[in-house]
Amino acid sequence: MTPTPTIKTVAEAAGVSPASVSRALNGNPSIAPEIVERVMRAADAVGYRPNGIARSLRTRTTKVIALLIPDIGNPFFTAVARGVTDAAEAEGYTVLLCNTDEDPEKERRHLAVAEQARVAGVVLSPQGRDTDISRLRQSRIPVVVIDRPLREKTDAIVVRSFAGARAATSHLIEQGWSRPACVTGPASADTARARLRGYHAALREHHGMPEIVAHADFRQDGAMLAARELLDRADPPDAFFVANAPMALGTLAALAERGLRVGSDVGFVSFDDAPWAPYMTPPISVVAQPARPLGERSARLLLEALHAPAERRPRRITLSPTLIVRASSLRPQGAA
Questions:
Q1: Measuring CA to CA, which of 23, 62, 304, 323 is 20 to 30 A from 261?
Q2: What average pLDDT does the segment 154-183 reach?
Q3: Do strands 285-288 and 267-271 pair parallel, antiparallel, or not at all (unpaired)?
Q4: pTM of this prediction?
């Protein structure tokens, strides 16, 4: 018969002391997040489950909020994180930042760590609509999703991506660009699909516009490859609507490789007003999301849920983006 795994078994698998395992499993804030994650992975690997006494120790929550975002390098999520942190710290809470890298397995591990550590609540930008938050539900840990909704009913704050994408694409067409392309994210991401739908809606409203679309990950390198493929077509685009700031950098790099000048040879609009966008030559037109206010409101909504009765209905808040026109999308006077 296989021996029942113990804390010592987990400690050996994780390469830490049994005391560290105990503190990690019971949500002690003195344990570094990377150690907590290592312990959780080891516990899953050896099949360890806390006994009833250990479980009873976890009936107490900490004054810690877990924030799970796909890419801390994306200026949008950096601003969101700042908003969450400012609002949470004003109420005496600490924020544990977790970067999921658009990886479902990494997201699952971070959610498991949050549940085992008995965080007060979770703010989550999910990898997809089917992200599993059942363990948090069972532990009565409230969740607020941001940017991308879940199929499961929960508190959510989202931005009107469809409307922003339609406005950006319509602006390019109205400026006289005749072949606008859309470089958007993976089809699994709700925001990528919404921005593509907005692009398509603008094309339908301006009859005769060709559809030129490329999907990539939400990263710079992926967008560069996608833009190169579009530019290699026999009839390449003369303008680009790009779905986020990292992808915008990749697309701009591909244009620079070909010697194409933004605002002269090619029109350009990016979703998200990255800090660098106004300072480029020429300045970049953007669809600006209220990123920091979104983060602040998500933290306040989470704290509201912490003190609400169990039968409280989930709230959904929708924010509007703003099209900011700069020189990159303006067609030169007299251009053919």
A1: 323
A2: 97
A3: parallel
A4: 0.79
